[in-house]
């Protein structure tokens, strides 16, 4: 990494960069000093990844709090990425993709993290990579919130924001739901069963990501009695998903990233970047009305698309074709606008 | 209690009755042998209460799983009842009201309880009281399910069923929600904090009883940071409600009554009693569509009223005037039909 590529512009000071470069991808770790909005100054290690040749237009892809830097497979890193299904091969071939593991996702930082801090971290990653301006940010769920925070703090560094299933603030009902998840994690820790606390918190989260419509079709069976207790049709699936997730997740990481969603609080009018917003009509976590309010307030051209999905909030993961279409259209528009 | 008043009609055998009678009310305990649908034969102590003179037409009033036999204040038992606000003075004065504490609500019965078992218990209470036929059952939430079970098992013993916010079966999404609540209680029981497990389960239940609309207005504030953690606007209210409820609730009672809702499974076509159904459009626990399906299937005259309430499922408690109107109209109709 040539030193000349590092440009600091009101972004956090970088201490160290370690990276490995392959023909079609690059991974690295950047250690930097981050002044958290709520939580003091911390030394943080950022893990980032890029995919695609350096001369291509750059798009940052940011997912939910459980997502990571590996967006899509490359020759260098061939495992499937979390955005693989949505990442249409055409635009993937035409762009360099940047992403990073969320600040706090390794569980090493036990302090209140804000989406503004994640935006500062993205700016630091771009500095390290010598990327001045992003063609676009594609942010889903938490990633949409971070995209909005980045567009607010660095309007000159992104030409187009595509924010899917995220708004400028959390809905109070969703906040209550998440607060209970964090309290269930705390109960698990108190009871010396952190894994079960995490698993139940994840299962609660799943209920907020999905919809009654999906459950009505998928788990339409009377409960069975097992050892004298009723087991509902969805319980085995929920427990399996919860346990698998608990195994790979640090309690601190979950609590701090969950909390980060509740601390997220931006003014729509401070977003001055052309924006494409996507809402799912059935989303119970981020109600479409909140995204409509965001759309009405943004101080730049906005397009709002309301999609339908029986998967509600999880539509950003479970409706890859619809998302791929949105992206193809939005990124084309962006390129036309930039031409 | 004169022995002649005891009439057994395919209802459980009564072992003992102890009761105290006042001019305008009566309370008693009946010990009986109950053959549970799923859980074998058990000796169960039923606690019941009546209010109003013996010659008046009799209405059974049944509430949610947290309700009890004390429906409304009398001279004998002057404390406020759980249905006080909904119980219009006119119809209260014109009826004798019967209710009972749910089988399992004392925590003494640790076995799967079905709504069919509660219906058998109600029949036993009526036998003990010498009541052949009820003018009406007013059932709310769990009470609506028990009312449907009673109408199915004893169509000749009730002339009119008023079932508010209850259906013939639970919705699979609501079942998943309740199953998680029971699992949170189990987590609390692991070591030594049953109260916190119960409190969190209740808080989760509250989220299912209420609506995002209510929370959006009521808890519209950014979180505050307390000892380095975010506290959302609703957390204090939820924690207070959860703790107060946990203090007065047995874990076994909660788990078995919660489970009882999920075991509830009736055929609408087996209900052959004139029925008034009430749904709340915003009810996320008992979706109006499920009550519409019930209405379509009942083999008797049915009236369905869909009310609106920002309190969702809890509308049966939080919209006393609307409920009082429904009752006045429904009970008038019933009396006309019987005249």
Automatic annotation (TrEMBL), chains A, B:
Pfam families referenced in this protein's UniProt entry, alphabetically: Abhydrolase_1
SUPFAM superfamilies for this protein: alpha/beta-Hydrolases
All copies of domain AB hydrolase-1, residue ranges: 74-320
Keyword Transferase tagged: yes
Catalytic activity, EC: 2.3.1.46
An MF annotation (GO) of this entry: homoserine O-succinyltransferase activity
Keywords: Acyltransferase, Transferase
EC main group: transferase
Source superkingdom: Bacteria
Biological process (GO), any one: homoserine metabolic process
Protein name: Homoserine O-succinyltransferase
Taxonomic lineage from the root: Bacteria, Pseudomonadati, Pseudomonadota, Gammaproteobacteria, Lysobacterales
């Amino acid at each position: 990494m040539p030193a000349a590529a590092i440009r600091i512009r009101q972004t956090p000071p970088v201490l160290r960069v370690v990276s490995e470069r392959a023909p079609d991808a690059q991974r690295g770790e950047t250690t930097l000093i981050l002044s958290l909005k709520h939580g003091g100054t911390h030394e943080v290690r950022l893990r980032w990844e890029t995919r695609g040749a350096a001369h291509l237009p750059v798009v940052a892809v940011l997912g939910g709090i459980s997502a990571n830097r590996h967006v899509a497979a490359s020759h260098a890193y061939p495992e499937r990425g979390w955005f693989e299904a949505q990442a249409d091969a055409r635009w993937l071939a035409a762009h360099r993709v940047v992403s990073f593991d969320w600040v706090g996702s390794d569980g090493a930082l036990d302090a209140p993290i804000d989406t503004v801090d994640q935006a500062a971290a993205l700016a630091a990653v771009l500095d390290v990579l010598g990327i001045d301006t992003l063609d676009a940010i594609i942010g889903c769920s938490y990633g949409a919130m971070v995209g909005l925070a980045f567009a607010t703090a660095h309007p000159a560094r992104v030409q187009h924001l595509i924010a899917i299933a995220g708004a400028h603030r959390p809905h109070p009902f969703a906040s209550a739901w998440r607060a209970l998840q964090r309290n269930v994690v705390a109960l698990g820790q108190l009871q010396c069963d952190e894994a079960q606390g995490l698993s139940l918190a994840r299962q609660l989260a799943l209920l907020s990501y999905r919809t009654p419509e999906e459950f009505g079709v998928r788990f339409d069976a009377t409960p069975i009695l097992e050892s004298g207790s009723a087991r509902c049709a969805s319980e085995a699936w929920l427990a399996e998903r919860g346990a698998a997730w608990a195994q790979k997740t640090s309690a601190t990481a979950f609590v701090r990233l969950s909390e980060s969603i509740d601390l997220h609080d931006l003014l729509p009018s401070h977003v001055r970047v052309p924006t494409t917003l996507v809402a799912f009509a059935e989303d119970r976590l981020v109600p479409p009305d909140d995204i409509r309010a965001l759309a009405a307030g943004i101080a730049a051209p906005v397009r709002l698309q309301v999609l339908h999905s029986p998967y509600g909030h999880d539509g950003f993961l479970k409706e890859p074709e619809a998302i791929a279409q949105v992206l193809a259209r939005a990124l084309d528009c962006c390129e036309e606008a930039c031409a």
